[in-house]
Amino acid sequence: MATSLAAGLQAISSSMTNMPEATANIISEARENVQKQFDVKSTIQPGQVLPEFVLPDARGVPVSSIDLLAKGPVLITFYRGGWCPFCNLALRAYQQRLDDFKARGVTLVAITPEQPDASLSTTEKNELKFPVLTDNGLQLARKLNITWEQPKDLVGVLNGFGADLEKRHGNDSNEMVIPTTLLVDQKGVVRNVYAEADWTQRLEPQEAVNWVNAL
Question: pTM for the full model?
Fold first, then answer.
């Protein structure tokens, strides 16, 4: 039986228990605070129309929502970055179900605040066969209300882990995307939304397949 994404995410969390106490406290406090601040009801909701966008893919080629929707429904998953082990695991889990989405005429797309050179590295590392797009300055994510301001001490910790967010994002903002997955029908109407402030949690790919089956 295949291991669930949740089990893999939990394994990553468990493996991080040996970090220095001060570092663990910074991460834990930031995680608790964003969960308290974030209101999923304030995000884009089912029945609303997805804002149109044109975003560069991992090779810098512009990709428009209009062109994507012309092919059929679109499943979009927003992730923090290639430095995030939870994101990488989730991307690989969705890659494993790519044929299920394609068989149902659905295009899978990942969106990140990272610049194309970083997203290309993530694409290659995880052997992704679906588009990975760059949301420069989180302009699209802001429209969906799925962003938050990271505290400086957390950014310092992440940079200490080698994230180098300023370089990866192409700006010095501490803003970060909330991991979110949404299904949009061919008319551009959002049908399902999963937005979770706890970045160690993600939507199971099987649940996304269930969404698609219900279209």
Answer: 0.95
Residue 21: CA atoms inside 13 Å, Cβ hemisphere, count? 0
As given in the structure block, the two tokens for residue 122 are 């993530």
The CATH number given to whatever domain includes residue 162 is 3.40.30.10
Q: How many domains does the chain have?
A: 1
Q: Name the DSSP class of 159.
A: H
Q: Which residues, listed in sequence order, are joined to residue 194 by a DSSP beta bridge? A: 181
Range of the domain at 116: 5-214
The tokens describing 116, both together, are 């194309």
Q: Has residue 67 got a pLDDT over 50? A: yes
Confidence band of 52 (pLDDT split at 50, 70, 90): very high
Of 40, 35, 87, whose CA–CA distance to 194 is shortest? Answer: 40
